[in-house]
Design brief:
- With 465 residues, the protein is an alpha/beta fold.
- The protein folds into 2 domains: 4-264, P-loop containing nucleotide triphosphate hydrolases (Rossmann fold, 3-Layer(aba) Sandwich), CATH 3.40.50.300; 266-460.
- Helices cover 54% and strands 8% of the residues.
- It contains 22 helices and 9 strands.
- It has helices spanning 4-7, 21-32, 50-63, 76-79, 85-94, 102-118, 125-131, 156-188, 203-216, 230-241, 247-252, 275-286, 292-295, 303-306, 314-330, 339-355, 357-364, 370-377, 387-394, 399-406, 422-436, 444-460, and strands spanning 40-43, 70-75, 191-196, 222-228, 257-260, 264-266, 272-274, 382-383, 416-417.
- The strands form 3 sheets. Strands 2-3-4-1-5 form a 5-stranded parallel β-sheet, with helices on both faces. Strands 6-7 form a two-stranded antiparallel ribbon. The protein has a two-stranded parallel sheet with strand order 8-9.
- β3, α9 and β4 form a beta-alpha-beta unit.
- α2 (21-32) packs across α3, α9 packs across α10 (230-241) and α16 packs across α22 (444-460).
- The longest helix is centred in the middle third of the chain and has 33 residues, at 156-188.
- It starts with a helix and ends in a 5-residue tail after the last helix.
């Protein structure tokens, strides 16, 4: 579960493993400019660190704040249960000021009439009897004052329509008053509202929040930023309005600008590296359980570089590290025969445990489908038939090829294409043994025992929960 008390204190100075400060600085430049960018979406998939980025952005705005912004944070998911998005947003704006401040008092005073009108007060029973099955479509507020209407009265519809017209006129007047009060506050202190976690809300609440932003908060000097998963928000809209709805067009009639949080960063050589790869190393290094010699084993950090970790969230990466920590706790160091290869297998099998339980079961039964394994490590069969090909593979044996060799006896069919002659096969095996020495590899017997031990420990608890 996200610890918001810790999140609120985070800045890009405390940590910025995904190099996102430049993105935040550009967002601030847009907010400071004369370009109309509000409401804005900061889009990111689930588990990509959106909430952390949100708080870091808020703290960066407040750190250097020449425009004297009032910056608010709203967790839409936490507000979902109240079912009143307008009340939630107004409460956040009111919180900018002390309870005795006249600005706060005046703002709340002007907000209350509209809040009271749209909050569903009034009686619905009379209209329920009169309109039968259509009663569910009638807002509660329209039933106000209907207690005296008698069954079958000819004037029922006339009185209902009159009530509706009066309420509509009153709503427009009160909404205008509320918007004027909001604009008055923002003229002194421009407002930025960061709305987080909308993609986790009930569909009806999420749509209500969007409508509220559009109709109430579209005033000068008030800027709204939604930090959300845009695709999930589109799915929410379809859920509310039907699968035939053009959710993309509906969503972007509300928003003027979208910032996409990158899922990769560039290394010193300009290559793209998945954020998950970076986060894995950062999380391992920060662990208070994993010993230093384990953290210093550079081979373990190569493992996520060739797996399809783009399918994993940052929370999944944390769970994988929790698997490793669990295995470390269960480890009997006194019985260790080769720390390097043991640590490599521990990390690899933790990724398998999290990413592909079917493959894990195949390893357990020692009956691995070669194609499945190849797809998992995104590798190919190892061709040892020609001297030049096997020298390329074995002279500097990569981690990816290491696993192809280590698990070869587990495959339904061998993953290695060996020469036809027995002498050449023996030569290949000799070279393989030398190459495995890079990873402090002892023997197949030790490897098999250790794999079994790791899997038994992983399956002892359901670590992913």
């Amino acid at each position: 579960m996200t610890d918001y008390s810790i999140m609120r204190e985070l800045t890009f100075s405390s940590r910025d493993e995904f190099t996102r400060k430049p993105i935040a600085e550009k967002i601030i430049k847009l907010l400071d400019s004369d370009i109309d960018v509000s409401p804005m979406i900061i889009d990111g998939k689930w588990g990509t660190g959106k909430t952390e980025f949100c708080f870091k952005l808020k703290n960066l705005i407040e750190e250097n704040n020449p425009n004297d912004y009032k910056v608010g944070y709203v967790n839409a998911f936490q507000a979902d249960h109240a079912n009143e998005p307008l009340l939630t947003l107004i409460a956040e704006v009111a919180s900018f000021y002390d309870e005795k401040d006249d600005k706060r008092k005046n703002f709340i005073k002007n907000a209350v009439p509209y809040l009271r009108l749209i909050s569903g007060i009034g009686l619905k029973a009379g209209l329920g009897f009169a309109f039968g099955r259509y009663a569910a479509d009638i807002p509660d507020a329209l039933a106000d004052g209907m207690e005296e209407i008698k069954d079958g009265s000819k004037s029922l519809i006339d009185q209902s329509l009159e009530s509706m017209i009066k309420d509509q006129v009153e709503a427009e007047k009160n909404l205008s008053t509320l918007r004027d009060a909001l604009s008055d506050i923002a003229s002194t202190n421009p407002i930025i509202l960061l709305i987080d976690e909308l993609d986790r809300c009930r569909p009806d609440f999420a749509v209500m929040m969007l409508e509220t932003i559009k109709h109430v908060f579209d005033v000068d000097n008030v800027q709204i930023i939604l930090i959300t998963n845009a695709e999930q928000l589109k799915a929410t809209i379809k859920h509310s309005y039907g699968s035939e709805t053009d959710s993309h067009s509906y969503l972007y009639k509300f928003f003027k600008y979208q910032i996409n949080l990158p899922t990769t960063i560039k290394d010193v050589e300009g290559r793209s590296i998945e954020n998950n790869v970076t986060y894995f190393k950062v999380t391992v290094q920060a662990s208070r359980v994993i010993p230093q010699d384990f953290k210093d084993n550079e081979f373990i950090y190569e493992i996520p570089t060739f797996l399809d970790v783009g399918t994993l969230s940052l929370r999944n990466i944390e769970q994988i590290v929790r698997c490793i920590e669990t295995l470390v706790v269960f480890e009997n160091i006194e019985r260790s025969k080769s720390l390097t290869i043991e640590q490599i297998l521990m990390v690899f099998l933790s990724f398998v445990y999290m990413m592909d339980r079917d493959l894990l079961n195949q390893i357990i039964t020692r009956h691995i489908n070669p194609t499945k394994f190849s797809n998992f490590i995104r590798g190919t069969r190892l061709d040892m038939r020609q001297p030049y090909s096997r020298s390329n593979i074995l002279n500097d044996l990569s981690i990816k090829n290491l696993f192809s060799i280590v698990f070869d006896k587990y495959f339904v069919n061998s993953f290695l294409d060996l020469p036809s002659s027995t002498i050449e096969q023996q030569e290949v095996q000799r070279h393989i043994k030398i190459s495995l020495g890079k990873y402090d590899y002892i023997s197949d017997i030790h490897k098999d025992e250790y794999i079994k031990q790791i899997i038994n420990n992983l399956l002892l608890f359901d670590i992913v929960k």
